[in-house]
Structure formats: structure tokens, C-alpha cells
Amino acid sequence: MKDKCGICNRVLRYNYLRKCQRCGKLYCRDCMVPDVATGDPTRMLCLNCARRTVSPRSVSKYEGLTRYLKFRGSFTDTVKLGFARIDGIIGDNLPIEAYKSEKWWDNASTRVHAKAWLEAGWEVQEMHLKEGYVVFKKVRDVKTASTGRKARDTQLDKAFTPVHVRPLKPKIPSKTKVSKLYARIKNLERQRTSMPTYHGSFRPKPKYEKKLFKPNEKPQ
Length: 220
Prior knowledge:
Blueprint: E1 2-4, E2 11-13, E3 17-19, E4 26-28, E5 32-34, E6 44-46, H1 47-54, H2 63-72, E7 78-82, H3 83-90, H4 96-100, H5 112-118, E8 122-128, E9 133-138, H6 148-157, H7 175-194, H8 207-210
Antiparallel strand pairs: 1-2, 3-4, 5-6, 7-9, 8-9
Helix pairs in contact: 2-5
């Protein structure tokens, strides 16, 4: 059996090809290296995956502006931002060209900074370099990732289904406990029947009163 390498496109036998541990595709031995992140020689990665590990995709400097405009697009169509405010959103200072040239604010998709508001569905409508602010206008809607709060709200709209609970079964006492209870009841009945009955106000004194010393009485 033969297959083609995913990088150099050479057709080799299957035993000369190896599977990348990250992407799962087949590559020849010349197009694979050990995992540079863990240093494990048995874990082989292709050159493409190894390059992504060493130099991951860099985030744009203006990514914060894209997120901000997407958030504002959910409840407004125009946004007025000062240059100082934009500096705080992106976490860095705007280049000097942004303060001097109006061409820097053109809606050109080939520029990195312009992609920040174009990808969010906004365009620059007005710019005032002397006053130091710019006005963005929303031209299209962009779907944003649903937050956890919205997901919980949608779950609350669903019909409530109670959790199934097994009914509690009444506990039946054991035969030993029942027999002990009956024996206790019979003993109480026997004690009642064996006690002597007295008529009138006469009651025998208890034993501890008989033993008490009474000085006013003469001994018999």
C-alpha cells in the first residue's frame, strides 16, 4: 500500500509514512520532527504543526477595537470615539500618521488597522483631526458569540421538567422488634393486674418512710 506525503507530495510506501500527533495526517520522515513543546522524541509532528507551535498566530494590535465595535453594534448604529479613547481600547498609542493624515482612516480592507472596524461591520463616516475624534457607522450586522448569560436566558424559556424522584417506601419493622414490643406490652399488663387494690383513703406507706426515725412517737 502506498500513500502521498502531505507536504512534499512524494508517493511512498505506508511503512515509510508516519502520522502527525496533532493534525492526524500522514507525512514522510523527512517532513516530521519531534514535538518541540514537550521534547518527547516519540511524539512526532509535521513541519506545519511544529511551525505553529513555535510561532503561533499573532493577535492584531487593533483586536480590542473590533470587539468594542461588535459590542456597541448590538444597540447603536453610530459611535463617536476620540483618539485618546481608541488608545485605551487597543491598549497602545495610535501611530503619528493617524493624527496627521486622513488617508489613514480610509476604509481599505488591505490595511491591518482598517480591518479592525470593517470586520466588525463598521465604516469610518467622519473624521476630525483637529478636534481629535472619528465617527464610525454600522453598515452590516455581525454575529457575535453568545455569552453564558444569554445561554442561561434561553434555557429559562424552556418548559420546566421536574426531576424524577423515586417515592419513599414505608419501612416495615422486623419480626424481632414486633415480638419485643408485644412482650413489653404483656409485661406491663401483668404488672397492673398483680398490683393490690386498696379501698378508701388507706394507702400503705412506702418502705423508706417506715425506716425514718420519729422522735415524737414512743416506741411500741
